[in-house]
Amino acid sequence: MSNIKHGIEVIQSNVKIAPLKPGVYRMLDKNGKVLYVGKAKSIKKRIVAYTHFDKLPDHIKRMVSEVDRMEFIVVENEAKALLMENDLIKKLEPKYNILLKDDKTFPHLTINPDEDFPALRKCRGARKDKGKYFGPFANAGAVNDVLDIVQKTFKLRSCRDSVFKHRERPCMLYQIKRCCAPCVGKISKAAYHDLVSETVRFLEGKNSELKETLSAQMEAASQAQNYELALILRDRIRALSSVQSGANVEYADIVSVDAVAAVKYKNMVCIQVFFVRGGQNCGNLPFFPKQAAETSEAEILEAFLSSFYAEHAAPKEILVSTPLENADFLQNALGCKINFYQKGNKAKLIARAVENAKAAIERKLAETASVEENLFEMQRVFGLAHLPQRIEIYDNSHNQGSFAVGAMVVATPSGFDKKSYRTFNIKYTENTHDDFAMMREVLLRRFERMSDENRPDVILLDGGLGQLHAVHEALQNYDLSGITIIAISKGPERNAGKEFYHVIGRESFALPFQSPIAFYMQNLRDEAHRFAIGTHRKKRAKSIYKSQIDEIEGIGAKRKHDLLNFFGSVEQIKGASINDLTKVAGISKKVAEKIYNYFHN
């Protein structure tokens, strides 16, 4: 830390010119590389803390010693500061920031009460559509459980709009009393919207209030001798009571909460998040942030909340496992309460999150140890110079030569690195029935883009000696030093576990049947196969869909959308007459003739 004095002087000089407004600050080293990105309600007041060198943690002292200049960005409020900080951290990956690997999108439920007969749907990703959103849910299973409850209790439709508009009789869901069949007029628009309103209240956790309303309606219906309606309301009340009785008693008085616990345990850091909505446990997930070993649990929590809720909607309240110094800033930025409890049901919930974080660390350590053991065995069996840090596995997929794709997956000592997965559209190979030629093309394109940072230690091919020789021949002009190329082929009768392994310069061999290393190698091969097949299917589906409509002259995204909305499917468009086609908004007689002729020539 020979440059401590210089670093402190740089920060002190910037304190004099730093704004008192909210914003983001960056600390850079002498090479212009960003060391740290931070946010603050007042930039000037925040960076003053770095000048009190003796009070700083060791890792921050090291950072200060490397600082050569600072940059500031002023924004309107705390929320904008949080979003900008998150964007810069993800883009720059600064050396001293806690990094959260969060490329996951969480499932939500959404409904638009402004539609005539809205449907409750599952969704992921950006919130592009209008309406109300409920969630997040940790996984598809959790969202399906809630959707199942809603269908049984409120009987809202779940079909696509295109199907809904063209039904002439009720579907099976109506027969089993899981839909009220608005498609064929079995319920009025006003009555259906009452169900929508009740569903929204249920998803917002207002179960008790909703039961009281339904009970009053049931009593009124009974007094009016409308016994059929009274029975329907009674069944709905019973369904809600069943949901509440099945809810975890620890969550019963909790409406909308995320419990977030940060735990440092056995030299690892884990953040565990529990999602609770309306007394229902909507699942939990662990996160393992990078560059967090030297920071306190409170700092880790603050960094996680800033990053996670910049991407995902915050609930009404966030429970944390330790008090936060900057809780006020985060509350203003996120628009929710952040609380630390030491007793009561919420304290029990956060304690459970802490327990699960420790358990997740135990599992992670066990998995890491298992992978490391397999890598050591792989090094021994295949005579590798050192323990492999990057393994690339390749596979191709096609349908009788059509829609051919190559796939590359990457495995590291930490597991599969899905951000490094790549797909290759096979386009230069004349004969896509030739698996050898396809594999050559994929590897050549990969090596053209290779750098020292992403150079593999092992290349694993799904194939036999033919693929192995084809790849070696294709790569003969490249430096293969330090790279071992292995081919794995099916064993006798294509029996999993009896595969043969092929390496240039030695005889083909099989690994001990059902040995850990054999399972590990199969797992690598199977992941590449899964990824290749999935990519191929997407390409084929997209191509089929595109060839039907998108190639028609004069049909863009808007007209395609209107046609599908009106007719419901491509098959219906194919069978439509010119007169029927002109009934779609924006489709003139001339365009209708083009569409008709495209499908009937």
Architecture overview:
With 601 residues, the protein is an alpha+beta fold. Helix content is 45%, strand content 18%. The protein has 20 helices and 19 strands. It has helices at 4-17, 43-48, 58-66, 78-92, 140-154, 161-165, 172-175, 189-203, 207-223, 227-246, 297-311, 327-334, 345-382, 435-448, 465-474, 516-549, 557-567, 570-575, 578-581, 589-600; strands spanning 23-28, 34-40, 69-74, 108-111, 121-123, 132-134, 256-265, 268-277, 280-287, 317-320, 337-339, 391-399, 402-412, 415-416, 422-425, 458-462, 484-489, 500-502, 509-510. The strands form 4 sheets. Strands 12, 13, 14, 15, 16, 17, 18 and 19 form an 8-stranded mixed β-sheet that branches. The termini are far apart. Mean pLDDT is 83; it is low at 243-247.
Could you outline the blueprint of secondary structure elements for this entry?
Layout: H1 4-17, E1 23-28, E2 34-40, H2 43-48, H3 58-66, E3 69-74, H4 78-92, E4 108-111, E5 121-123, E6 132-134, H5 140-154, H6 161-165, H7 172-175, H8 189-203, H9 207-223, H10 227-246, E7 256-265, E8 268-277, E9 280-287, H11 297-311, E10 317-320, H12 327-334, E11 337-339, H13 345-382, E12 391-399, E13 402-412, E14 415-416, E15 422-425, H14 435-448, E16 458-462, H15 465-474, E17 484-489, E18 500-502, E19 509-510, H16 516-549, H17 557-567, H18 570-575, H19 578-581, H20 589-600
Parallel strand pairs: 7-10, 10-11, 12-16, 16-17
Antiparallel strand pairs: 1-2, 1-3, 4-5, 4-6, 7-8, 8-9, 12-13, 13-14, 13-15, 17-18, 18-19
Helix pairs in contact: 1-3, 4-11, 4-12, 5-10, 9-10, 14-15
